[in-house]
Write a structure and sequence with these properties.
Layout lengths: L6 E2 L11 H15 L12 E3 L43 H4 L10 E3 L9 E3 L16 E6 L17 E2 L13 H10 L15 E6 L11 H13 L4 E4 L3 E2 L6 H11 L2 E5 L14 E2 L8 E8 L17 E6 L1 E5 L2 E7 L2 H18 L5 H10 L20 H8 L12 E3 L3 E4 L3 E7 L7 E8 L2 E5 L5 E6 L2 E11 L4 E3 L7
Parallel strand pairs: 1-2, 5-7, 5-8, 6-7, 8-10, 10-12, 12-13
Antiparallel strand pairs: 2-15, 3-4, 9-11, 14-15, 16-18, 17-22, 18-21, 19-20, 19-22, 22-23
Length: 492
Amino acid sequence: MKSLSCLVRGMSDAGTRLSSEAGSCRCLSKMARRSAHRTLLALLAAIVLLAGDARSSAGPGSTQPGPLGAAGSDSAYWYYCPPGLVQTGSADALANGRYCAFWLLKNFPLGGDSATSTSVPGLDVLPVWKKTRGAGVTVAVIDTGVDQESADLTPNLLSGRNTYDGNGNTADDAGHGTVIASVIAAPAGNGGYVGIAPDAKILPVKVLGGSGGEDWSDGAVVRGMEYALAHGAKVLNLSIGGLNTPIAGIQKALADAQRAGALVVIAAGNSGVDLDDPRNIESPDGYGLSNTITVANFTTRNTLASDSNYGARHVQIASLGTVLWGDYPGNATGGYLGGSSAAAAATSGVAALLFAADPSATAAEVRRAIIVGANTDVEALRGRVEANGLLSATGALAALAHPDKTPPAGFQAVGPAFAFRSRGSAPATFTWRPSSDTELEGYSVTVDGHTTVVSPGTTELRATLRPGVHRWRVSAYDLSGNRTFATAPSRR
């Protein structure tokens, strides 16, 4: 089923009680466990309203009262910034204060303790702002909507669309999409938070209904993506989805995005499973497409989140996502978001910076730059994501300056012939010699119009065919989407 996260808001001061909304969230969570009905977001995130120094009685993902870990505690979910940690160079008290945008830094002290010698890698965004801040790029937040009344976000908000209800009301009752938008592109200099791409524009596309975003429609998601493409979005942020729950029409929408030259950033999901295991399919699934990038969740404790999905082939990179602060509907001091939703938002922000830095760059080139430019000095991510590392804005910008336009080396199919006749229903084995490329990402094998993507170490595919004439081709592709088709098998 579609993943369900808990929304907790209206927190009290010291003494901490769950609000009435939190109580209904518990009921909703139970209902989701009992029902096969599709629910909510692949957010696998929690959103909490901040009220000055108010303390929540529930950590991310929790629906039961409990203490909030103080700064410096072992909590993996909360990070309070020591004074002066972040200096954005702008008049944004929230981004530079206790709920600071620590992810903008190259690194930050573990547990918020400025005296500790242990540091956690950040996304290294601030140096990139000397080159680009995202101007001229539109990012579509395809989500629960975005708060249209936010004084902090308004300068960068465009008019959007509600494809769930079929109208122009993109108000965010859940809060999820607003925090996502804030992390991506909250403008600088107006006193609030600062996004990773503070000069980019946000196109709000509301595809989920209900007060908590619990009402799901496959059609609304697909229509939302098509709307975003039609209105010039260069980056589509999809912090929504579900495990083993296909979204009807999503593959066509992803292909349409590829034709439009847009990069689709997808949250990996928060079921804690290996997406390279064929039993685990997170939808949306952009595997094999050169314009999609799937993002796992990295924590402020220098680890891959225990509930983050992963996979060295199906998940391209990890980004900080537990937890990020940002704007929240109806609250001047904002809220937080934790999970692969937030990790995807950070990646969308970096993608916007790259498109602005080089407007001629293709979606495949931006995707490659993000993967190749990853910070690979993070042991916890080796073998867990394709990049073997953490999102790095400076690394991605450097990689973008040196695109790979060379296709994989030529290679030959072994057999059968590209066109052959099968006289009975029997398994057929399609084989080819390996191609070579330092950035080889895989092979696409098309048999009778049906394409299967396999890993770069694979040189055969088996399929059961009906009697008749069959045709097949195989191509090798790299991180940039460069592609080489195999030459025909030798005649025997």
